[in-house]
Amino acid sequence: MSLDFQVSEEFLEEQLCQTMPKSEKKGGPYSKQDKQARRNEVYRYHFDYGHSARKISDILKINRNTINGDINYWYSKIVNDNNIFNPEYVLLLTTERLDIQRTRLREDLAKLSSIQEKITVERMIFDIDSKLSHIHLRLAESTKRSHEIAISYVNNYLKDNKKQERYFTFGDKFSVTQKSQKNIEKIIKEDKKNLWRKQN
Fold this sequence. Notes:
Helix 2 (32-48) crosses helix 4 and helix 5 (89-111) packs antiparallel against helix 6 (115-160). The chain folds into three domains: 1-83, no CATH class; 86-162; 164-200, no CATH class. The chain is flat and about 65 Å long. It has helices at residues 9-18, 32-48, 53-60, 64-82, 89-111, 115-160, 178-199. By secondary structure, the chain is an all-alpha fold. 6% of the residues are buried.
């Protein structure tokens, strides 16, 4: 089944300006406003419809390198806005799409009058929230693992170079002697065992 996606009239008008002879258009190839309009269209096609850079390039009649640059811009913006350390782009893409779906459902919910329809939409919103929570949990776990691997490399380096300091905590950074490190690790293991016994 083929879907006919329409390019907004505003964007087409702005693109028409790009094709004018240089004598008729002053300044660089894209003004700040034109660039943002183009990026907004790229965002819509990439995140709303899931189109590749090649497909968007064909639809908008814009060089694929420019489209790739715009897609990278949006991914970087998502990374910065969410303050995520070393994110997986696939998870970010999924998160962004789920956020968009959630917003649409919230808007639709306000327009519904039937209780049954409202319950159905609320369940869909709850399902999206659950998926988003799971993604954020996985990202947090991934960040923690990355940090632990880095700490392990540092400690191995310190050990190989016969240094007494050791690093072992997530988030905080402070040095202890090798003997203290082993004692602290023993205490942590015992606490985990005791907690497990209480829960079971």
